[in-house]
Specification:
The protein has 391 residues and is α/β, with parallel strands linked by helices. The chain has a single domain, classed as Metallo-dependent phosphatases (Purple Acid Phosphatase, chain A, domain 2), CATH 3.60.21.10. Helices cover 19% and strands 21% of the residues. The protein has helices at 3-12, 79-95, 119-125, 159-166, 204-207, 219-236, 278-288; strands at residues 25-26, 65-71, 99-102, 135-137, 175-176, 182-188, 194-200, 241-245, 294-297, 303-306, 316-320, 337-341, 345-353, 356-364, 371-380. The strands form 2 sheets. The protein has an 8-stranded mixed sheet, covered by helices on one side. A 7-stranded mixed sheet has the order 5-4-3-2-13-14-15, with helices on one face.
Length: 391
């Protein structure tokens, strides 16, 4: 991006940077490295969350509802991303929004090469400067790639996005990624249980197109330990609501398809034996089946609400990968859906109360920024709540 265009975009979105104090608790991931200030004019120094919390600040009263927005595949820095961001701002203003879930591909096309990479400004800070709320981020294949094709063969590169969470020179405190995979709690009920637990998966080492020869990210050293960690955390959670977020879909009618048969017809070009996502599919089922209320993903640049499937229990399956790019369906009938939309930008807004989940899909015109509510539906909570085991 040229200096003139960067200056123009910065002036376009001038507004207060977020100073939210919400942080997250981590799983196993990268180390926290010291960093240099991001390049760019007049970047403020912000506090460093060196000791992430296990949840949000304790509320005075029991949490009655939470609202959040789900986006994915957003990090283009193009005008479409700005249009989606503005539509998000208006919905948050009108309907409320406590935080944003970012389902990966945060910095196109090949992630960040350092903690002070300009991609953090151009693909995140500037587009979302007028959204004063925390973003809980997930790694995508383009965040862990060494080429523009997003093959995911350089997983170590994703560590820079974790490091940005801890950087004292980051542009704002909105970015939350305390580890490559992690758990985050939101709100509290009267008896002290969390209102919501979020479980963030790092899907890339489990589904990369091309093999990463760094043994730190092998199935034995990374995939399986992550599965065990996630399964244990989900089983221990006493949260009223449980949501999992990953980048690669479990089910999708888009070009990448369903886990277990990802990118059918293209795998002859790939070198990673796990590119079909079979072990990833089993990972998700082992950790989350009959345990979570919703699974949110991106990767396919579409919007989909796929109906629950037996292998995942009652979980609602959401694909929200159209916050910066668009695509068309490969097979609209591959999975039954409540709603799906192709070739349009958009995002998902969710409101949770004690017994109800309200889900709304918004479509955004890529050229004009005009947006509209395309679909809305309420679901009654159907997943049981784990009770504390007696001492």
């Amino acid at each position: 991006m040229s200096t003139d265009r960067r200056t123009f975009l910065r002036q376009l979105v001038i507004g207060g940077a977020s100073v939210s104090a919400l942080t997250a608790c981590g799983g196993e991931g990268s180390s926290n490295e010291s960093s240099q200030p991001p390049s760019g004019p007049d970047l403020p120094e912000v506090p460093n969350p060196e000791t992430p919390d296990t949840g949000t600040s304790e509320p005075e009263n029991a949490t009655e509802s939470l609202s959040f927005i789900v986006i994915g595949d957003m990090g283009t820095g193009n005008i479409g991303q700005y249009h989606v961001a503005e539509a998000m701002r208006k919905i948050a203003q009108d309907q409320g929004c406590d935080f944003v879930l970012g389902a990966g591909d945060n910095i196109y096309e090949d992630g960040a090469t350092s903690v002070d990479d300009n991609g953090f400004l151009e693909s995140f800070e500037y587009p979302y400067q007028n959204l004063d709320m925390p973003f809980y981020m997930c790694l995508g294949n383009h965040d862990c790639a060494s080429t523009i094709f997003g093959g995911g063969s350089d997983n170590k590169r994703g560590d820079y996005q974790v490091d940005y969470h801890y950087s004292r020179q980051r542009y704002s405190t909105k970015w939350h990624m305390p580890e490559r995979y992690y758990q985050q709690s939101f709100g509290r009920l009267e008896e002290g249980r969390p209102f919501l637990d979020l479980f963030v998966v790092d899907s890339n080492p489990l589904t990369s197109f091309y093999q990463d020869y760094n043994s730190d990210f092998s199935w034995e050293n990374y995939g399986y330990p992550q599965q065990l960690w996630m399964k244990d955390r989900v089983a221990q959670s006493k949260a009223h609501w449980k949501i999992a977020m990953s980048h690669v879909p479990y089910r999708s009618n888009g070009k990448h398809g369903n886990a277990g048969n990802l990118d059918e017809g293209m795998r002859v070009l790939f070198t990673n034996p796990d590119a079909d996502g079979l072990r990833y599919k089993l990972f998700l089922e082992e950790a989350f089946a009959d345990e979570i209320d919703m699974l949110v993903t991106g990767h396919d640049h579409l919007l989909q609400w796929i109906k629950p499937v037996e292998s995942m229990g009652a979980a609602q399956i959401i694909v929200s990968g159209a916050a910066g790019k668009t695509d068309k369906f490969q097979d609209k009938k591959r999975n039954p859906t409540h709603f799906q939309a192709e070739n349009e930008l958009g995002f998902v807004w969710v409101n949770l109360t004690s017994e109800r989940m309200q889900v709304e899909f918004y479509l955004v015109d890529e050229d004009t920024g005009d947006f509209r509510l395309a679909y809305s539906q309420d679901e009654t909570k159907s997943v049981g709540i784990n009770e504390a085991m007696p001492a």
